[in-house]
Amino acid sequence: QVQVVESGGGLVQPGGSLRLSCTASGGIFSSFAMDWYRQAPGKQRELVVGVTIGGSPNYADFVKGRFAISRDNAKNTAYLQMNSLKPEDTAVYYCAAKHIGTSITYWGRGTQVTVSS
Q1: Interval 5-33: pLDDT, tens
Q2: How far apart (Å, rounded) are the C-alpha atoms in residues 36 and 117?
Q3: Do 18 and 116 form a contact (C-beta atoms < 8 A)?
């Protein structure tokens, strides 16, 4: 059973930075494309960045130039570096591990990011 766990959320002031981590266990990590989504209160879940194995990340316009995705296959971990955070970035951030062979997507429970002074 694949388990996905996000961490690294918290409270940060506008203009600050956070790095979210996402670990996926129970499968071969390199076989998963790791996407990031977010959901703000009262809004639908939206894609922050999607990535395919061997492809370039596809960032949502509202995070381009501020957020960056990376991964360390040796640690079974993906990262979302978030810089120049804005209050409108406040949301629960979710990691989605999509298996490139089966296209099955496994979700974590999310980590809360709050941007406020």
Answers
A1: 999 999 999 999 999 999 999 988 888 99
A2: 25
A3: no
